[in-house]
Amino acid sequence: MSPPAEVRRPSPSWYESAARDRARLLLDAGTFTEFLGPEAREMSPHLGIFDLPRQFDDGIVVGSGKLAGKPVLVAAQEGRFMGGAFGEVHGAKLVGLLRAARDTKTMPVLILFDTGGVRLQEANVGELAIGEVMRALIEARRAGAKVIGLVGGRAGCYGGGGLIAGTCSALAVSEHGRIAVSGPEVIETNRGVEEFDSKDRSLVWRTMGGKHRRLLGGAELFVDDTIDAFRAAAIALIERAPAFDLAMLKAEQARLAERLKRFGKCADGLDVWKQAGVADPARVPGMPADEFIALAQRIGEGRHDAR
Questions:
Q1: How far apart are CA 122 and CA 78, in angstroms?
Q2: Which of 25-44 are b and which e, b meaning 16 or more Cβ less than 10 Å from the residue's Cβ?
Q3: Of 116, 139, 226, 291, which sits 20 to 30 A from 123 (CA to CA)?
Q4: 191: closest CA among 181, 179, 200, 182?
Q5: How many other CB atoms are found less than 10 A from the CB of residue 185?
Q6: Where are the domains of the chain?
Q7: Which CATH number is 19-305 given?
Q8: Are 108 and 27 in contact (CB under 8 A)?
Q9: pLDDT (0 to 100) of residue 145
């Protein structure tokens, strides 16, 4: 009697997985080593003042491992702790990882974004952390390291996280991923519901969602909601992300100027998609991932003209 065929288990959902599981399962099996894990108890010194619970890793997992046999550094935000928001310790852990990449010059960094922005309880040091992370990220890229952002978590990628994502070498996003500097509730609070209705989920997704970001050129790849899909995207983007030099910056500036000229008068995501060449824009939100990926490959604009 022949042995039963091996049954491959479905890849876990990226959206449903915790930060530590995303980091561990994204990398080659058994290679992930965490730095400053929960046993180090590096917690926020500020949250206790407000009688708020703290977490031993302060909501971010950092470490190293191998991806397709090659060494990488990885940082994964935990959106289920304070919305993955940046504070002093949270930001310092990411800064340290990026400085390590700067010093190695060639080791890629994977940032698994899942953040609502900066903690209001740590506003000043949180904002400072965003600036320090962006500076460290640029220094790493100038030294030759690729920094790849992966967006598909519960909290999205908002506020300072959206700014950091914009400085990455390349981005991959899923249906659940949302990228913006200001979140829906922030816009509504400051400008009124007439400007933006945060409860209109359809509006949120066609303004900030993964499909819109891919078609607009705000992300290089759109992927299905599985860890295997994000893993394949990370491998591909490390290979194709451009070098950080003056020619790339000029090309990016020209691309953004052209995008503003092309879509600047569009009032809605549906208008953008139609202008981009989508025959039936109303179908985009409900498109299965494989169908949308094929569409995006035909008409989607890629940042930096990456090859």
A1: 17
A2: bbbeeeebebbbeeeeebbb
A3: 139
A4: 182
A5: 14
A6: 19-305
A7: 3.90.226.10
A8: no
A9: 97
